[in-house]
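Write out the bound-state structure for adenosine-5'-diphosphate.
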Amino acid sequence: MEDWQLLEKRLNNLEGRSYRDYRAIKENYAFPQFDLTVDYVQGDPFAAPSRIRIRLSQTVAQFPSQWLTDYVSQTAIADYLTRQVAQVAQSLQQKRGSGKSGNIEIAAPSQAILRRTAVWVDTEAIEVRLTVGLPAFGRRIAGRAAAALLCKDIPHLVERCLPYAALDHAALTCHIHNLEDAVALRSQLEPHGLVAFVAAGACLPRRSGIDERPLIGEADLFVPPADACFELETPHSGSVKGLGIRAGVTLIVGGGYHGKSTLLRAIEQGIYAHVPGDGRQQVVSHPGTVKLRAEDGRSVAGVDISPVITHLPQGGQLAEKSGRKSTASFSSANASGSTSQAAGLIEAVEAGAKVLLIDEDTAATNFMIRDRNMQALIAKDKEPITPFVDKVRQLYDDYGISTLLVMGGSGDYFGVADAVIAMENYQPRIVTEQARLIAQSDPHQRQPEGGQHFGRITPRAILPDSLPPPKGNRSLKVKVRKDTLMLGHEEIDLRAIEQIVEVHQVRAIAQAMIYAQRYYFDGQRSLSEVLDQVMADVERGGLDALLADSGSESWLVGNLATFRRFELAAAINRLRSLKTTQIA
Ligand code: ADP
Ligand code: MG
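---
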């Protein structure tokens, strides 16, 4: 450990030297209040920024100790501090030369409260991981600017954001209570037989398709219907009333533009807790809730979709030869709307989903319904698809998997739904009985085509070398955006994985895929077992565990966020290089 004044001296001495000489500052430094580690030094002013780590002991930070031993409050504090640092870092932002010179950044959080590697809090210390753009003039070191950045701005940032005494205690407490309440609400779903809960007063609509903040001013706050109103307890807000959605098959109906998709989307995001002021703090869903949709063009590798699709054309000899069109082991480099949705369904079940969400807006019609007239015109043996309406009950009865679906355009699901919610002017009304009567009195009922059972879910093992090979003996290059992931030359389109909310999750998923390939893709373990293993390793060792053996010397990065097994599975399943074998 060096003294911080040595860092200042080094930086001043580097003034005007070649940018590469910045490498000399990679070291630990003791500041009066905290330690600073320079983990990684960028190669030039335009490259990915340098990484630093700050460690502030709790003897200085002095957070109330009862918050530091509890997983939930730790998570809330870390999330809160991330937001504080992000704000102050932005206010310190000054252009200190070319490229990213002078940038101070922390992994930007979304509306969700998540565990991230950006900030770690425990009984010993607070650790914060930042990136900084080391200042340059052209390609020369701006040493004095760097000294101001690291030896003045960073201490200032630490002082303003990290000690408990410097924080807004009411806001921090609210953040913690907010998360504790959400966790308590979610834990009461199962005991009440619910899969989702939407509290009275929730604000569901968002500002826009690209802005996850709440729609303010013109939003109608949620009013639960009296006949589906549940009351759950929270530690900090007393009992909370809201719409409870029971396990089973639930339908959301209603006219166009009346708020059906908005409700479904809030429930889809109810797997996360949200920050105070978000409007969805008390909207919670079962942690095994997975949004399903059609996604034509995606790749599918060896999925047994025969429970819902059989005998595709060319399904006979031709398929045997090419090995492509058999639906017992369906592979495609360019799946259709219906086959992509069928594969997504089976994959979600394989990964352990407990609640499926489907919106007619993003579903394949022929996967969802096949009405009476169509049954009369096209015989069942000429239609490979068993529509989901004929399998949705079996899915619940055989596997205990609930479905919540938005279906404003067809009444065919009335007969299989346990509950029907009508959205009218953004407010829910229970219309289960009316829908049941309509279904029962329909003289022209359609023929059920789904049989007694859903059908077997065939587990797959992932073969080694399912990831694209790295170039030479270097490690696989990873590039991420919120909706795409590049592994080497392979690009995975993540736009259909709607429950990913941060690019940091994508980055962690990419690392988890590389990790899974290194340790668990062995052609023996089922994909579900691989997911168990990876998630257990992350649980035990934190997200850092994914990079610990990566061979990279600076593996402590601040830009990873927690993800679920379902999103990891979804990314693996979309790999075009994925090789699978079915387990008998
Ligand atoms: P649907 O799926 O029934 O066609 P949407 O859920 O897409 O309807 O909602 C239509 C529009 O209404 C969207 O722009 C949405 O933001 C807005 N909206 C939804 N719920 C509310 C609400 N509670 N208050 C105000 N606007 C809302
Ligand atoms: Mg809609």
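---
The CA atoms of residues 19 and 139 lie 6 Å apart.
Residues 204-205, 215, 218-220, 254, 256-262, 423, 426 surround adenosine-5'-diphosphate (ligand 1) (CB under 6 Å).
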